[in-house]
Design goal:
Length: 356
């Protein structure tokens, strides 16, 4: 029952709520439940009165009035009771005498539970404290044992310090002596390094000289090859000059043999110089011996220089004279004279002309 608006819960399904076209309601139930649509559509009136809902029939109005009277009578009879404003549960609690005891029981149970929880916490704390005490006792025993060990170790360390101090003094003296020896060895190493560098420079100079000698010898070989070609041409022109040309060939062959010997000597010197370079890297004592060997080789190289200069003079002057004794004369301008009767001319182009 809705006591505020007196709307019974037994209203019919087509009950019309108050509805205005201007304000309306917050929902559209009034539009759906508008009563009999046919009557509302067929009736017209000039004077408009906004009734909240359509009128019910008289039988329904009487029934509703009777129900309302019975409802109010029942309500007023209930209001006369002393506990009309209380609900059933509150009324039962007031009537029941054991409710106070139950409250006390619940309070005591709560206190007991809180006391039990506190006792459990205290027991746990006591157990942890006992464990900590046992562990602390063990630690104290261990610390005492360690303290005894430390006392013994201190005594041992004092003895060791005394021994080590004596050893340190000995080692310092040894280190001082070793430093002096190291300085001396470093100086000796620097000296040996300087000697190595000087020896390498000398060897490089010797190699450069040998290269120059080899170049000069190759130039001499070229000149001798040209001379041999000139003699071959002269052999084709005159058969009578074969004996003299053969002698010249023998001389040239002897000179070529001498040049080959010189080349062999140079090759030997190159191999010896390579051996000297290998020995200089690992052996310091053989340096003096190698310098003596190099001086000997320098003497041999000077001899070679003298022979090469003699050959150069022989090439530049060119005294090929065949006078009455059978020598050939080359006067520096390409003419080869045989005595007073026959003249061979070489005009610088490798050809010989016979002038009777």
């Amino acid at each position: 029952m809705d006591y505020n608006y007196f709307q019974p819960s037994w209203r019919p399904w087509n009950y019309a709520f108050p509805f205005s076209n201007t304000f309306g309601r917050f929902n559209d139930n009034g539009q759906r439940n508008c009563g009999n649509k046919e009557r509302s559509l067929q009736k017209f009136s000039t004077s408009f009165e906004n009734n909240g809902h359509t009128k019910k029939p008289k039988s329904n109005q009487k029934r509703d009035k009777i129900r309302l009277v019975k409802y109010y009578e029942r309500k007023n009879s209930l209001k006369e009771l002393p506990f009309h404003s209380l609900g059933p549960t509150a009324f039962y609690k007031i009537i029941d005498h054991s409710s106070s005891l139950r409250r006390e029981l619940s309070e005591t149970k709560g206190k007991i539970n809180s006391a039990n929880s506190t006792t459990k916490c205290l027991l746990k704390k006591v157990q942890t404290a006992e464990k900590e005490l046992a562990s602390s006792k063990k630690e104290i025993m261990e610390l005492q044992s360690t303290r005894d060990d430390l006392v013994s170790t201190k005594k041992e360390l004092s003895m060791v310090r005394q021994i080590s101090s004596a050893k340190i003094t000995d080692l310092e003296t040894k280190l001082y002596m070793e430093k002096g020896a190291k300085k001396e060895t470093a100086q000796e190493l620097e000296r040996t390094r300087i000697l190595h560098e000087t020896a390498l420079k000398r060897v490089s100079q010797l190699l450069a000289k040998e290269k120059l000698q080899s170049d000069e010898i190759s130039a001499l070989n070229d000149n001798f090859s040209k001379i041999s070609e000139d003699f071959k041409c002269s052999l084709s022109l005159n058969k009578g000059l074969q004996l003299s040309i053969g002698q010249l060939k023998q001389q040239v062959h002897g000179q070529s043999n001498e040049i080959d010997d010189l080349e062999d000597q140079l090759n030997m010197t190159q191999t010896e110089n390579e051996q000297l370079q290998g020995e200089l890297c690992g052996k310091d004592q053989q340096i003096l011996h190698l310098e003596a060997v190099i001086e000997m080789r320098n003497g041999s190289i000077d001899d070679l220089y003298e022979e090469i200069e003699r050959l150069r003079k022989f090439q530049n002057n060119g005294p090929y004279n065949q006078g009455n004794n059978g020598h050939w004369n080359n006067h520096g301008h390409g003419h080869y004279n045989q005595g007073n009767n026959v003249q061979w001319n070489n005009h610088g182009n490798g050809h010989f002309h016979f002038n009777p």
